[in-house]
Amino acid sequence: MKRLVFIVLALVPATAFAHKPSDSYLTLRPGSTVEARWDIAVRDLDHALALDDDGDGAITWGEIRTREAALGAYAIRHLSLSGDGQTCAPTVHPLATVEHSDGAYLVLPLSFACAAARSLTVDYRLCFDRDPQHRGIVRLDDGSDRTVVLGPRDAVVVAAGD
Fold first, then answer.
1. 36 CB contacts (<8 Å, ≥6 apart)?
2. How far is Cα 112 from Cα 39, in angstroms, rounded to an integer?
3. b vs e for 41-72, b when ≥16 Cβ sit within 10 Å of the residue's Cβ?
4. What was the pLDDT predicted at 3?
5. How many CB atoms lie within 10 A of CB 118?
6. What is the pLDDT confidence band of residue 155, given thresholds at 50, 70 and 90?
7. Strand partners, 33
8. Higher confidence at residue 157 or residue 81?
9. Based on CB atoms within 10 Å of each CB, which residue in 69, 87, 113, 136 is the most buried?
C-alpha cells in the first residue's frame, strides 16, 4: 500500500502544490498630497500579525476591524515616500476589503503629505523579511500609468520626476 501511495504522489505534477507568489498592489496619485491605495493580501497580513484570533482558520471582517490600528502601523513601517529627499508624512484612512483573483485583500487607503515635491521616491519593504519572492506592484496614476515591480533587491524607486 505504501508503494502505491508513493507512486501516486510521484505522478502528481509539482505545480499542483505551487501557490501564487505573494504580492501587493500600490497605486499612487502624485500631488502636494500623494493619495494611495494599497491592496495587501489578507494571507500575507495574517502571516505577519496572526489575524485569526479565534483560530478557526477563517479571518473575519470583525477580526480585521479589531486590529485596524495594528494593520495600518505594520503597513506604514514597510512603506515610505519622500519628495525631493524629504519624508512625506503618512495618514492611514479606514480599511476595506476586495477580492483579487487569488483571494481576499485588505484595501489600505493612505495619504502622504509631500511639500510640492518635483520627485517622489518610494521605499517599499513589505514581506521581504518573510518572503523573498514577494513583489510590490506599483502603479503611478499621473496619466502615464507607469508600473514598476519592486522586490527585495530593488525596493526603492523614483516614481515621478521633473
1. 26, 27, 28, 29, 81, 109, 110, 111, 112
2. 16
3. bbbbbeebeebeeeeeeebeeebbeebeeebb
4. 43
5. 9
6. confident
7. 113
8. 81
9. 136
SS3 annotation, 93-109: CCCEEEEECCEEEEEEE
Q: If you average pLDDT over residues 20-35, what whole number do you get? A: 87
Residue from 92, 136, 84, 94 nearest 115 by CA: 84
CA–CA separation, 75 and 92 (whole Å): 9
**pTM confidence score:** 0.81
Please check whether residue 162 is in contact with residue 143, taking contact to mean a CB–CB distance below 8 angstroms: no
User: For residues 49 and 67, is the Cβ–Cβ distance under 8 A?
Assistant: yes
DSSP 8-state symbol, 56: S
Angle between helices 68-77 and 42-49 (to 10 degrees): 90
Cβ partners under 8 Å of residue 65, min gap 6: 95
| Distance in angstroms (rounded) separating the CA atoms of residues 88 and 111 | 9
Distance CA 69, CA 73 (A): 6
Name 2's Cβ contacts closer than 8 Å, sequence gap at least 6: none
The grid cell for 71 is 494593520
